[in-house]
Amino acid sequence: MLLDLLARRHRGVLVTLKRDGGPQLSNVGHVYDGTRRRIRISSTDDRAEVRNLRRDPRASFYVTTDDQRRRKNSLMAVPGPHARTEASSERLRANHRPRPLSR
């Protein structure tokens, strides 16, 4: 159920640890890479979540369903050359293009 939810939803909350140990909650866009079982987020080097993950790779990711049932999982940040690929960047852009508001 959680992995299906990650694949269907494209927004979540990444929870990282601040320098003082307190939680940093960041709303992020994401795509789930099911073959590698990785969540790829949309962020930049100057963001708090990136600085926090470089200092301490422990994190949690929170995603919810339309009816507000919650699913959460712990994860570890994996830095490296796979952190940004053209395919994952295009998937993130496609998921976050403006769409008409539904009524």
CATH class: Mainly Beta
Order of helices and strands: HEEEHEEH
Largest sheet: 5 strands, antiparallel
Give the quaternary arrangement of the chains. single chain
Strand order of the largest sheet: 3-2-1-4-5
Query: Which fold name corresponds to the CATH topology?
Result: Pnp Oxidase, Chain A
Can you give keywords for this protein?
103 residues, alpha+beta, Pnp Oxidase, Chain A, 5-stranded antiparallel sheet, 3 helices
Strand-helix topology:
Elements: H1 2-8, E1 11-17, E2 23-33, E3 38-41, H2 48-55, E4 58-64, E5 70-76, H3 86-95
Antiparallel strand pairs: 1-2, 1-4, 2-3, 4-5
Protein name: Pyridoxamine 5'-phosphate oxidase N-terminal domain-containing protein
Keywords: Oxidoreductase
Pfam families: PNPOx_N
How would you describe this structure to a colleague?
One of its GO terms (molecular function) is coenzyme F420 binding. Residues 4-65 form the Pyridoxamine 5'-phosphate oxidase N-terminal domain. The model has no long low-confidence stretch (mean pLDDT 75). The chain has helices at 2-8, 48-55, 86-95; strands at 11-17, 23-33, 38-41, 58-64, 70-76. It has a 5-stranded antiparallel beta sheet with strand order 3-2-1-4-5. The longest helix has 10 residues, at 86-95. The chain is globular, with a radius of gyration of 14 Å. Helices cover 24% and strands 35% of the residues. Strand 1 and strand 2 form a beta hairpin. By secondary structure, it is of the alpha+beta class. The chain has a single domain, classed as Roll (Pnp Oxidase, Chain A). The N and C termini lie far apart (28 Å).
